[in-house]
Amino acid sequence: MTPKPPSKPIKSEIGVVEEAEEDGVEECRELEVLEATVEEEVSESAGPEVKIVKKSRWEQSRRSRKFCGKWLNIPEIREWVHPIPTDPTYVWCKMCKSKIRAHLNDLKTHKSTKKHKRNMATYEPELPPAETMDCGNGIFVSFSTPKIRQGEMEVMGLTSDATEPKEAEDPESGVLGGPNLSSMSTLGGKEVVNPASLGFIGSGNMAQALLGAFIKKGLVDPPHVTASAPSVRNLTKLCALGVCTTHDNNMVVMKSDVVFLCVKPHLLNNVIASLDPLPPDHNPLFVSIVTGHDIDSLEEMLSTLVERPRVIRTMPNTPAMIGQGCCLYTLGTHATPSDGSVMHSMLSSVGVCAEIPEQQMDAACGLAGSGPAYIYAAIEAMADGGVKMGLPRHLAQSLAAQMVKGSASMVLESGKHPGQLKDEVCSPSGTTISAMHVLEKAGFRNALISAVEASALRSKELGGNK
Ligand SMILES: NC(=O)C1=CN([C@@H]2O[C@H](COP(=O)(O)OP(=O)(O)OC[C@H]3O[C@@H](n4cnc5c(N)ncnc54)[C@H](OP(=O)(O)O)[C@@H]3O)[C@@H](O)[C@H]2O)C=CC1
Ligand SMILES: O=C(O)[C@@H]1CCC=N1
Description:
oxidoreductase, ProC C-terminal domain-like fold, binds NADPH dihydro-nicotinamide-adenine-dinucleotide phosphate
């Protein structure tokens, strides 16, 4: 069967912009139509009561116009618009430091004002409004740029730790640092990381899993994140979170203190080769989640951009998205102890996190990186078994998933060996030992051992494809 083409094919950046513009315009058109319909209905209606009802419906619809993440794909807008997470019916103009209604037409009008043009010409990056500090959904943001004003510090309730100016130089390595990434602070009882601006080259499953966890835990402010990808497939999802998106990988590197490399292994060489060398005052920390590529190859590739690149290699997994992931990491030659402790703090937010020697990375991939897929397949298959034996599908799936979760918690919390826990389920001549016999005959344990081995070996092989 020929796959169905997407309803709006995106061919180029121009296409993206057109789509974003069309969406915004479409939204306005829909509202205009609604407005006209309502006015018509009102004029035809008999009494004042009806009129009030109709009017309030109309007003509601006007009020419900909200910031749309896709607008950040419009180059003439994204440079100056900053979403206000606490009030999506307005946006913040970074240039004029003013609030504007979140209507695409209002943004276009604002952009043409003399004041805005003047401010654009003289713009220096500054803080968003204080009201974006508490973003809701557990997101708190602290800023430590020296530009922060005393009054604003108090409004934000920041401790002095959180507002220290950035370290100029790491005494051990002589590496010029970004902001003091390791300085943690608390705000509203939550941990916040100082204002590292994060970049993601590649915005797919894993980038979203990590970023989702960082945002959920309040470790990063979405407008301080820049993510890239060639298509809008994934970028639109990130846009909706208030993250800045682009098709330009160089922009990600230039805007970020920490750059996550999140592309497929076979693309990494070309992606890095097409990045521009960095200016001497910019030396971001590169964190690779790319399977296979080892520290040596990462450092070699990145040394075309910057001398002594600071690199961390990681192996996360997708349950990171809900804070139940595993993430292993290893530090590169030029990564500082402070880089290590920051990354440890950040990666701990995705679940279990540990530093391991690099030679264990392929095995970590085979077990923890790929492992969720084995378990999803097992859940699906066991649910099928339940359905075969008469359970409704939704119940079978929930039971299978909860049973896996409960069994995993037993291993983690009881301290017992899994073999012992298995024995506790198997009564003599009982049902479970009959089932275990079937699994053994089918090579269940052998299959799992071989699966971990196959993934680890493939990881090694991918690393060899330099
Ligand atoms: N998935 C997992 O469970 C795990 C994955 N990993 C590793 O993480 C990496 C990413 O995997 P995953 O997130 O699953 O992959 P996805 O396919 O979901 O995401 C890949 C992303 O890279 C983007 N991309 C493609 N070409 C470029 C380019 N030239 N420049 C910038 N971005 C580009 C894609 O763009 P577009 O959005 O346009 O398609 C997409 O956003 C891989 O190296 C994988 O080995 C590690 C651990 C676990
Ligand atoms: O299969 C993959 O590409 C990735 C690597 C680890 C898990 N999934």
